[in-house]
Design brief:
single chain, 416 residues, 53% helix, two-stranded antiparallel ribbon, six-stranded mixed beta barrel, alpha+beta
Length: 416
Amino acid sequence: MQIWESVRIALRALTANKMRSILTMLGIIIGVAAVIALLSVGHGFEQYITEQFEGLGTNLLFVIPGQLEGGGARSTRVGRQRFQPLTMGDAEALADPFQVPDVVAVAPEYQNRATVVRGKLEMGTTVSGVTAEYQSVRNRKPVEGEFIAPEHVNARSRVAVIGSTVAEELFEDYEYPVGQTIKLNDVPFKVVGVLEEQGGGAFGDEDNVVMIPISTAQTRLFNAGSVRGDLIISVIFVQVADQEKMDDVADRITEVIRERHRINFKDDDDFSVVNQTDLIQIFGEFTAVFTTVLGAIAGISLLVGGIGIMNIMLVSVTERTREIGIRKAVGAKRRDILLQFLIEAMVLSMIGGFVGMALGYAASMALAGLIDLQTVVTVGAILLATSFSAAVGLFFGIYPATRAARLNPIDALRYE
């Protein structure tokens, strides 16, 4: 009952100076809103990264040249042995069920940059040399036309499947891209399909791409080079039959490629086998730091708001010195005065916290439209912001409350 009575007195004291109370709460309101809004951006970015990697394909393993080091950097200086790139022979070995069982499909890719031209329009793009298996392994479906077929790869055909960004840049809305001719580095290619829009991905704009037969990319458009007669490739995607067998297949892939690359048992691998979980974890560490930094930056404004609360409570103690003296004269104890001013500081902080919570949610929704990212407001972020605002009110209210409780009642009654 005493606490509720203190809350009632606190509200009466705050409403007596409405404008001052509102301006004091403004720091807490902005701080809580900033914490919730920025944390929602951070959590939204984490979710976006996770969705992008999960959208790469199902039960997917990536075999890349070099080794992944701390922070995701890739090194091609491996042990004492000579670095060897991945080749088509490696991909064919991984597709052999007798060497690597439990594999659904293997999709090698050779990637390079090129300039794509149509008439007077041109743009820089990523050219991916792929096989027919790439469509199912990476879940890249054409919305118009068809994908690269085995006969295109066998014949080294000059055909291309373009991403939606390339289609928008080179063709008008009324034009049908399939059947048209484009040039990659001045080499003409016939468009046979347009890919479904993917949006920005973990590895850049997934729609600014032109896919051509891997044999054409390696020999007719670029000079891929070879190792012991096998053409070089950039990456191998391996789709595993069962999620539970991912680790076993990864171990078997390692054994097969180490044998093919003639790596001694004491030397390090000159390649990396990575699954989607590893990639999500690598990027998750970065996004977690990013989210923490955003929250810390927003938390600074809460501290500034707390300083404002302490300042106004000190002013309130000075203004109400006679009131404190009267309360002590009629029997109020030191702890009663301490509790009263602490509750006033916390009420001020909590009201600002609840208003900031609503403002922060609205701000996160507005940011979602501005930055084209699905923000995520979590219960944890709301509890963190409101709890921190209450802690700020308690911490910065202690000194003014202690100062009020220590006033001598005789001196307080004499105060004018």
